[in-house]
Write a structure and sequence with these properties.
The chain is 66% helix and 0% strand. It has 93 residues and is mostly helical. It has one domain (3-90): Orthogonal Bundle (Helix Hairpins). Helix 2 runs antiparallel to helix 3 (41-62). The relative contact order is 0.14. The model has no long low-confidence stretch (mean pLDDT 82).
Length: 93
């Protein structure tokens, strides 16, 4: 599916699709080891779709895009590199 179509979906729908794609990838890998696939290029397609969905979910977390029905930008639980550095720096105190 094209990224534009994924961006029209809600966060919950994308998470469900991601779960389904990961399950499909598992099943395809299992079938590769036990028998010949009808369409071996499906493995590549599923991997790329997984990457697309993960990218879109991350863009929403960072506030680069706004998914329909998502919370306000910046209210997500995204942790920035500076926040990580501060947390690591304060551990020794």
């Amino acid at each position: 599916m094209k990224p534009e179509k994924y961006r029209e979906l809600t966060r919950e729908e994308l998470e469900r699709i991601l779960r389904d794609l990961r399950e499909e990838l598992f099943n395809l890998r299992f079938r590769v080891s036990t028998q010949k696939l009808d369409n071996p290029l499906r493995l590549r397609e599923v991997k790329r779709d997984i990457a697309r969905v993960i990218t879109i979910l991350r863009e929403d977390e960072l506030g680069k895009i706004r998914l329909p029905g998502s919370a306000e930008a910046g209210t997500g639980e995204a942790v920035t590199a500076e926040t990580k550095k501060e947390a690591v720096g304060n551990e020794g105190d």
